[in-house]
Amino acid sequence: ELAKMVFTVAKKLCEIFLIFLIILTLGEVSLENENDVQAVEDLSLCLDWQKASLPSDSRSIAETHYQLGIALGFNMKYEEAIASLEAAIAVLDSRIKNLKSKTGSRKKAAKDEFDGLVKELGVEFDYEG
């Protein structure tokens, strides 16, 4: 019975993640087709759903903020674009701080993810900081 319940919850989470991925992909396709208004709409919807469902320091949220910033820039909404790109950086900064605070057996996995984030950001970072 417990396994069935776990499977049901896992299946629902996978479905939610798939919906996020589909909407994000639709936004990216709209961007590639220079349909910037539709891209902003799709990416905004995806971001709203992600914020309601994922941890606030989720890399998926950061990615969607980034994509939305790009779409807003192409749509000539420069102030909103800058705000969205800054929000992406803030999410990654939060993620880095949370990873740095990990202890025990999860510290190695956290350090590896931290290194990946630092590489993505293209910055030098002091681990002891």
Percent helix, as a range, is over 70%
Find the count of extended strands (DSSP E, 2+ residues). 0
Globally, the shape reads flat
Q: What oligomeric state do the depicted chains represent?
A: single chain
The Rg value, from CA coordinates, equals 17 Å
Structural class: mainly alpha
Biggest sheet statistics: none
Number of helical stretches of at least 4 residues: 5
Low-confidence stretches: 125-129
Instruction: Tell me, rounded to a whole number, the average pLDDT.
Output: 83
Kindly, what is the distance between the CA atoms of the first and last residues, rounded to a whole number of angstroms? 47 Å
Q: What is the H/E order?
A: HHHHH
Binned strand content: under 5%
How would you explain this protein's 3D organization?
By secondary structure, the protein is mainly α. Helix content is 80%, strand content 0%. It has helices spanning 2-32, 36-53, 59-74, 78-100, 107-121. The longest helix is centred in the N-terminal third of the chain and has 31 residues, at 2-32. It is flat, with a radius of gyration of 17 Å.
Q: Helices, strands, pairings?
A:
Layout: H1 2-32, H2 36-53, H3 59-74, H4 78-100, H5 107-121
